[in-house]
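Internal tracking record. Fields below are filled automatically when a chain is submitted to the structure queue. Please do not edit lines marked as system-generated. If the sequence contains nonstandard residues, flag them in the REMARKS field before resubmitting.
Queue: standard
Priority: normal
Entity type: single polypeptide chain
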Amino acid sequence: MTVSNQTPRNGPYTGNGSTTSFAYTFRADLDTELVVVLEEDGTETVQTLTTHYTVTGLENASGGTVEMVTAPTSDQTLTIRREVTRQQTIDLQNRKSVIPQVIEDGFDELTRQTQDLYEMAQRSARFPVSSSLTDLEFPVPAAGTAIGWNGTGDGLANISSLPTGSITATLDNAIMRYDSSGGGLQDSGLTIDDSDVITQASGVFTVVAPDGASLQFGGGIVSHTELNILDGLTASTVELNYVAGVTSALQPQLDALTAGKEPANADILKADESDDLTVGYTATPHDEGTVTTGTFTPDMTEGNLQQYINGGAHTLAAPSGEGTMIVQVTNNASAGTITISGFTDQDGDALTTTDGDDFFLYIAVINGFSTLTVKALQ
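SYSTEM-GENERATED OUTPUT FOLLOWS
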């Protein structure tokens, strides 16, 4: 037979806690040729045949399925690859009969081994075709170091510190910043004296100046006053809105906080302070719509002026909150009898059910006492 161009690897499949069948789309002659890998939180575990899975579709050019004993969870991924045993078992004897199928099977197995190796090579780090580097070796591992290019750029070495050549500073005690376009660490233009102290605890960074003034980051919102420490000078929001030459999002946030706000002045009435109301004002009545049945209880928090339509027999109950209000009631063609409930005292005109009749209901509630006065408007 022939061997088609196949990639002997499928996945990674993401589990869902219920799926146990996972397809592989390449030929495998033996169930031991399949390697099933389960990954979770970056750790890969090779599964064991029969214990963790079984295989169907062997010797099938289009593959088959791996049947897991336990369904992978949503935190796990499953990958299937082929690993043909790297051996050659055909023994041709001199002057003996040669069976072409045996030779072809050997070629097929070599092709599958080549496909397995190519698939692994595709997942490996490689140099560009134009690179002249060859025979590259990793250095012997050393604790506390990183692997990087050596000083001549033609090999790898253990790196224990940043190269000083990439760091430039024009001021003593400079605070450095990383600039990807400028090449490594650069001078930020800011300094911190030897007598300044920077401490960190529980995610909060504190800078303490020699005069005892401090500034904290990470522990909550930093106020304008806390930011306003610039060599003893008062800083405006424009001055604060400058970070390494880039306009920050601070100014738009400040603008958003003040947009549409009424400036503070002595004429604003406050709920917790005594004052005199020297002018009148108008109000729009709160509309409760049409009441057709059940119990209607006016709500003091909806305003002192309210209105509704009597569209059917219902009960008018005393409000629970304290205050005064006027409620206009208008009868429509379906108006019904209004039953009064819960008021300490009731007086005034009688409520009718005549279509088009209007009434003012004067309601007052103080210290648990409630009164209702009805005034017919026709």
